Amino acid sequence: MVTWIRKHYRDVAMLGIYCALTIAMTWPLPAQMSTHLAGDDVDVLINPWADWWTQKALTEGLDFYHTDYLFYPHGVSLVFHSFSHVNTAISLLLTPLIGHFAAYNLAILLTYAVSGFGMYLLANHLTGCRPAAFVAGVVFAFPPYHLFQSSHPVLVTTQFMPLFALAFIRMLRDASANRVAQTLLAALWFLLTALSSWHLMLMLAGWAAIYLLYGLLFERAEWSPGAIRHLFLLVVVIALAIAPFLWPIVHEQLVTDTSYMAVKVAEGRGNDLLSFLTPNRLHPVFGPLVSEINSRIGYTRNWPAYLGYTALGLALAGVAAARRRTRFWWMSGLAFLFLSLGAQIKWEGAPLHTFQLPWAAPIIAVLRHPMRLNSLTFFSLAILVGFGGRWLYERLALRTRPLAYLVLSLLTGLLLFEYWVFPFPTTRPSYSPFLHQLSQEEENFAVADFPMGRQEAKYYLFFQTIHGKKIVDGVVSRTPHDAYAFVATDPLLGPLRNENVPTEHLADRLAVLAAQDIRYIIVHKRFLDSARMENWQKWLAHFPPPCYEDELLIAYSTIPPLKTELLQDGDVHRIEAQLGNHVHLRGYRLSSDELSAGDVLTVTLLWQSDSRLSAEYHIFAHLLDGGGQLAAQHDGAPGGGERPTWSWRNGEIIQDEHVLIADRDLPAGEYTLSVGMYDLSTGVRLPAVDSNGERLPENRILLQDIQVILP
Predict the structure, then answer these.
(1) Distance, CA of 651 to CA of 609 (rounded, Å)
(2) Which end of the chain, C or N, has fewer beta carbons within 10 A?
(3) Shortest CA distance to 156 belongs to which of 338, 303, 312?
(4) Could you tell me which residues are beta bridge partners of residue 521?
(5) Mean residue pLDDT across the chain
(6) Count of C-beta atoms within a 10 Å radius of residue 55
C-alpha cells in the first residue's frame, strides 16, 4: 500500500485537493452534516426514504419493487422510482458510524470530489498535462448545474462517467494497456453508473455510441488490434451485469400498462440559450446583478447551465491549439448543448420559433427534461478546457515553470469564483414530535396525510422514515394513473383530498378507515395558507376532538369509541344471542311496541363482535304473522351501508337501524319481530343460538311481539 501511494502520490494529492475544494464549494454543508440535507429543492426529502426503504426491504425480506407502504392499501410499483443504489449503499454503510444525515450528505459530497478526480485522470490521459487536467476536473466537478443538482442523487452522481470513458478509450486505442483489464474496468464503471442512475447510464451509453460512431468514421486507423473483440466482450459483460437490475423495468413495460410513463413534450424543460452565459442566482457577487435576467429565463434558472467565461476561453484556446484531437469533443459538446435546449429554442424565456424540434420527443420520453444533458455538455467542455490549459501551460513553461503553475492556479481560482454558489443549497427538515409518538406504537397501521398532492407527499415520505407507518398518499418518479383509486372511492378520503369535506356519517366513515388499519388522519398546517386553513377548521369542527395538535399538524384518531354505554340506555331491550362464532346481539330499541297498518316500525339493533370479521354480512329484520309468513321486512348492510361488518372493531357496539313499512291492508293482530344475518356472497344465514347455546329455528333471533292495529 505504501509503495502504491509513493508511486501515485501526485494523484493522491490531487484527490486530496478536490476533497478540499468540495468542502469550500459546498460550504456551509460540511458544518451542518448532521442537521441539514444537501439541496434546497423539495425533492431532497424523498432521498432519505430510498435509503430507509432499501434497508427495510432487505432486512425484512419485502418485495423491493412493490410496496403498500405508499398509496396504502393498494400499494404501488417502485420499478420506475428514482433509486441511486450506490449512494444508498454508501449511506447505509456509514450510518452506524456517523448517523444517517451525515452519511447521506457524505455520499453526495463524494460525488463532487470523485467527479473532479475522475475527469482529472481522463484529461491527463488525453492531454498528458497534469496541471491542465486538474483544471478540467474543476470544470466537470463544480459548475453551478452540478452543485444545484445536489437534491438529486440520480443526477449528481457523475463520478463514474469519466472513469468509464478512460477505460473505454484505453480499451480501444492503447495497445500497451492490459486490454482485458480495461474492458472489465469499463464494465465496472458502467455498472456503477447504472446503479447510481438509469438516466446517467442512458447518457453514458449515448456518449459511448457517439464516440464509437465518430471513431469508425474518422479514426478507425487509431484503434488497436483486437478493439472490436474487446468491444464485444464489454457489451456482453455489461449486459450480464446489469440484466438482474434492468429486468424488472423491462418486465414492467411488457406486462403492465405503463402509459403513465409518457411525458408530454411541452412538460420537458430545456435550457434557455441565455442560461449558458448567465451566472447562477446564488452567486454572492453576480447573483443580484443578474436576478432580473434569471427571472426572465424562468424555471431552468434553478438548474443553471452557466458555462463560465474562463472555461469558454480555455476551451476555444484548446480547439485552436489541437484541432484534430479536440474535434470529437467540441462536436459532441455542441451537439449535447443543442439537444439540451428542448423542444423550442428560447432566449430570455421567449421561444424563437413556434414549431417543436422533432428530436426533443424521444429525449423527453427518456430523460424527462432535456436540460439534464448538461452533464454531457460539461463532460465535453472539461476536456476542451484541459487542452486549452495544456496549450497555455506549455507556452508559459518555456519561460518558467512556476509562472505556468501560477497562471493556471489563478485561472482555476477565477473559474471557481465564476462557479461559486453561496450559500450552498441545503434543507433543514422540521417535523412534529407526534411522528416519534407514532413510531412508538407497535402495531403496523397506516396514516392518511392531508392535504394530498405530489409535492406535499415528498414531505410525507420523509416523515415515514421517522414514524415507520404506511401512508395513504405517496409519490414515485412516475406515479401510475390509478395510484389514488382507493382514495377516490372512499366516501371520506376522496372529499378530503378534494377539500370538500362531508359532515354526515363522519363517525361511521372514520370507523371504516380504522377497520382498514388507517388509524390516523393528519392535517399538516404548513401547507395551508390562512384562507385554506379557515376552510379546514370549519370542516374539522365536525370531527371528533383531535388526539394531538401542535403548530405543525392536527391528528385525529379514526378508532371509534366502543360505545358500551349505549347498552345502559333506559329504552334498550337487553338480549343475549350469538350469530356464527363472533357476532353477538346485545340489545335493541323499538320506535313503538305497536304498529298501524301503513305505518313504519324502526328497530335499532346493537351488535358487538369479539373478533375482526373478514366477510361481508347483511342483516334482515322480518315481521312475521302468526303462521310464520313474512308481513314486512328490511334487508341491508349494517348502519345503512356505513358500517359494513368488516369494519367492526373488537368490542365496539354497532348501532344498526332498520325501517319496516307495514302494508295498508295488513290485517290487525299479533306479529313477531325477528332478525338475523347472512353472508352476502352466498345468501346463507349465520347459525343463531340463544343465551343458553340452543340453536334457534331458521337461524332467526325472535325479539318480541308487535301488535298491528287498524289505522
Answers:
(1) 6
(2) N
(3) 303
(4) 448, 556
(5) 92
(6) 16
State whether 143 and 13 are in the same domain: yes
Write down the number of H helices and E strands in the chain.
25, 21
Task: Judge if 475 and 365 occupy the same domain.
Answer: no
- Identify the DSSP state of 306: -
Residue 255 lies in a domain: yes
The residue range of the domain holding 476 is: 434-557
User: How far is it, in rounded angstroms, from Cα 298 to Cα 287?
Assistant: 15
586 and 523 both lie in a single domain: no
User: Which three-class secondary structure state does DSSP give residue 135?
Assistant: helix
Q: Are 415 and 307 in contact (CB under 8 A)?
A: no
Looking at the structure, do residues 401 and 465 belong to the same domain, yes or no? no
Closest-CA residue to 330 (of 270, 379, 279): 379
Q: Which amino acid is at 452?
A: M
Q: Does residue 429 form part of some domain?
A: no
pLDDT of residue 656: 92
**pTM of the predicted model, to two decimals?**
0.86
Please give the grid coordinates belonging to residue 544. Answer: 371528533
Same domain? 268 vs 130: yes
Write down the H helix ranges in 219-359: 227-255, 286-289, 291-297, 309-321, 323-339
Of residues 185 and 261, more confidence is placed in 185
DSSP lists the bridge partners of residue 522 as: 449, 555
Residue 142: per-residue pLDDT: 98
Provide the pLDDT for residue 665.
Answer: 85
Cell numbers for 456, please give them: 406535499
Domain count, the chain: 4
